[in-house]
Design a protein that fits this description.
The chain is mainly beta. The protein folds into 2 domains: 42 residues, no CATH class; 82 residues, Immunoglobulin-like. The protein is 8% helix and 30% strand. It contains 1 helix and 7 strands. Strands 1-2-7-6 form a 4-stranded antiparallel beta sheet, with no helix packed on it. The longest helix is centred in the N-terminal third of the chain and has 12 residues. The N and C termini lie far apart (56 Å). About 9% of the residues have low confidence.
Length: 148
């Protein structure tokens, strides 16, 4: 038996996770499906890279820095957000309740490991910014061609 599920090329763990999420949701609640996160409760995220690092931007409105836990496991960046209601009262009867107070975990798979302990994470105006430096051996090395 396999110890880890292998995803056939060009599919990824994220695609299978979204497919599973899409298939397990009631149809009346599904309006965006596999390719969006607005209705799934996930926080909008951008991930990109340049020659020196990987970058992650995630919208986290109303989240405090102490409610965010970032972990690096191999090539995966795991973002855990623990948010609890501030003034929960049993005497209140909500007419509408859309703000969700629960734990959220988001795993982002990078194409390679980042450099050990060369990470930076900040929050500004409700956006989490994470920078993961690439190891020196992963950066593009220029080779000089000289005449014989």
């Amino acid at each position: 038996m396999y110890s880890e599920l292998v995803y056939p090329y060009p599919f990824s763990r994220e695609l299978f996770r979204r497919l599973n999420q899409f298939l397990s949701m009631p149809l009346q609640n599904e309006t965006e499906g596999l390719f969006g996160s607005l209705c799934s409760g996930e926080l909008a995220t951008n991930v990109w890279e340049d020659e020196d690092a990987f970058y992650v931007e995630m919208e986290v409105p109303g989240i405090k820095p102490e409610e965010i836990d970032l972990s690096i496991i191999g090539t995966e960046l795991q973002i855990k957000i623990t948010r609890s209601p501030e003034n929960e009262s049993k005497e209140v009867r909500y007419l509408r309740r859309e703000r969700i107070f629960s734990n959220t975990v988001r795993t982002i798979t990078l194409p390679m490991n980042s450099a050990p302990k060369k990470w930076n994470a900040t929050i500004d105006a409700g956006v989490l910014y994470v920078q993961l430096r690439k190891p020196e051996e992963a950066k593009i090395q220029k080779i000089t061609v000289s005449p014989k």
